[in-house]
Amino acid sequence: MMDRYSLPHKVFLYFCVVLFLGFILLPFFEMFMTSLRPLEHLFRSPYQFWSDDFSFKAYSQMWETVPMLPRYIANSMLISISVTALALAFVIPAAYAYARFDFKGKSLSLGIFLAVNMFSGAVLLIPLYKLLRNYGLLNTYFAMIVPGAAFLVPMGIWLLKSYLEKIPRELEEAAFMDGASRLYTLRRVVLPLAVPGLIVVGVAVFLSAYAQQFLFAITFNSVKEFMPLPAGILEFIGYQSVKWNQMMAASIVGILPVLVIFLFLQRYLVAGLTAGAIKE
Amino acid sequence: MTHASEDLLPYQGERGGSAQKKQGMLQGLMRSQATFAWLLIAPAALYLVLVVAWPLVETVRLSFTNANIGGEAYIGTANYEKLLSSRKFGQTVSRTFYWMFLSVSFKIIFGLIGATLLNAAIPGRALFRMLVMPPWIVPVAIGCFGWLWLYNGHFGIISGALQYIGILDGPFEFLAYKQSAFYSAVVTDVWVGLPMVTIFMLAAMQGVPRDLYEAAYVDGASRWYRFRRITIPQILPVIITMSILSIIWTFNSFEIIWILTEGGPRSATTTLIIDTYKMAIANFKFGQGAARAVIVVTLLSVFSLVYLFALHQIKKRFEAA
């Protein structure tokens, strides 16, 4: 009863939804349409909404315009996967400690971790640059992996902590009683039970790492061979003209993997991500 | 429970111990709990000390020097004095606040509207909820390349559509003029941040107990009244959390502006972060860049403290009620 809408009300709701989603999806729609058009059609004035020969040619030409494109895509993946692995290596033990143990300075130290979220890499670029230079990491993959992972560790700890708190303690206590060491319990009892949570946290970290490669890439790396896709895409902007159709095609190819991952896991991801913030 | 313990075969040897011994061991473990917890936290803490805390301290130190590509020397508070007396920097600060105010308000208002729409019991809402997310998960830089093309005056769809319906009578380069470039950057920043705000508010709305609405409905309360008097107060903590997160992200927002305008035209979109980046990375004036970074960090800390205070107040009120 309460949820019933009258017809005009319903029409209005759908109208608003269309407007809202229209704004959200407009860039993707236009990116896709642009990728289907021949370059000459894009550069027509006045603007034309329709071209008569849509084709997927840009999707094959883009590999010739930017021969390094496959390398950029692979770099993006490699960097994101490494960031995820590195971040999780730090996140898992810390999240377990916060989920299970009471100790002095617990909430203070957790607060300090979360405060890291306040800073973006952009504020700390100068000393980070020096740090990476001192360790000889500038212009390597590590220049993008090491700072990338650091800013995702707090988020990971927070997400995984809320998941671990839901796993019953009894199993661990039973293992202790049998004399298993704490580390052994963590490895053999807790982690297997936490796999679904680990996947959510891992995917969330991966997606964030994939989304935020641009800044560290353009600042700490100048070697073409190591560039991730968001920075590599700039190559479509040439001295003479911008190959917009191919640039958009490459962008779509670049966002496809994350969209697919997200499509499969969105239910778990959204539940996992919002859980920490909503419960009070 | 027994099942789980039988999986721990390697430790069977220790099982024979007397109950007393077990008790003592357990106490020992309990005592070492804090040590163990800190051992688990140590790697993450050390990592962040190295990559975040040390750079932060170093930034503060650099801000008192004239560090550049050639070397550095201590110059006291000269960098700050220069900043505070600079009219241009004052403009950058007020621009940053205006940018933040606009972007965050839009994100919160449209996030509320979006969440309400997606929470309405209409067919297709599962699909709509999914379609909101892409800007959130897609690389920010790539989304911005899309907007860069949308804003193109001659060949972009926005200028094209506005000409078609007669609002513009010729091509309009959105990113070429001070005013329009600024507002275009705001729109793109809203686009990037809106999905997450919407989804979190939606999740909060779904958590509001249904009987509150039913009771109000029985009493004849209108939808608007229920929204105002039930939904908003119930999800207030999330609204506040989303506001502070948006403030922090909008303040730190770099890629969007850098890709769209690099802070131009004529500094029209130069926020504090862009200014810091330009000074430090593009001009190699590390000392002056660091001073800006310190100001950014200070402001962000103030926002966060205000946030913690506000959340604390609300919790108190909730508990009182």
From TrEMBL, chain A:
Domain ABC transmembrane type-1: 73-265
InterPro entries referenced in this protein's UniProt entry, alphabetically: BP-dep_ABC_trans_perm, MetI-like, MetI-like_sf
Domain of life: Bacteria
Localization terms from the record: Cell membrane
Pfam families: BPD_transp_1
Residues annotated as transmembrane: 12-29, 72-96, 108-129, 141-160, 189-211, 247-265
PROSITE patterns, per the entry: ABC_TM1
SUPFAM superfamilies: MetI-like (SSF161098)
Coiled-coil stretches noted in the UniProt entry, renumbered to this chain: none
Membrane-related topology note: Multi-pass membrane protein
Keywords recorded for this protein, A-Z: Cell membrane, Membrane, Transmembrane, Transmembrane helix, Transport
Protein family per UniProt: Belongs to the binding-protein-dependent transport system permease family.
Protein name per UniProt: Carbohydrate ABC transporter membrane protein 2, CUT1 family
Record lineage: Bacteria, Pseudomonadati, Pseudomonadota, Alphaproteobacteria, Hyphomicrobiales
UniProtKB/TrEMBL annotation, chain B:
UniProt-listed SUPFAM superfamilies: MalF N-terminal region-like, MetI-like
InterPro entries: MetI-like, MetI-like_sf
Membrane topology summary: Multi-pass membrane protein
Keywords annotated in UniProt: Cell membrane, Membrane, Transmembrane, Transmembrane helix, Transport
Location(s), subcellular: Cell membrane
Transmembrane recorded as keyword: yes
Residues annotated as transmembrane: 35-57, 97-118, 130-150, 181-203, 235-260, 289-310
Keyword Transmembrane: yes
Domain named ABC transmembrane type-1: residues: 93-307
Principal location listed in the UniProt entry: membrane
Domain of life: Bacteria
Pfam family, one: BPD_transp_1
Family, as annotated: Belongs to the binding-protein-dependent transport system permease family.
Protein name: Carbohydrate ABC transporter membrane protein 1, CUT1 family
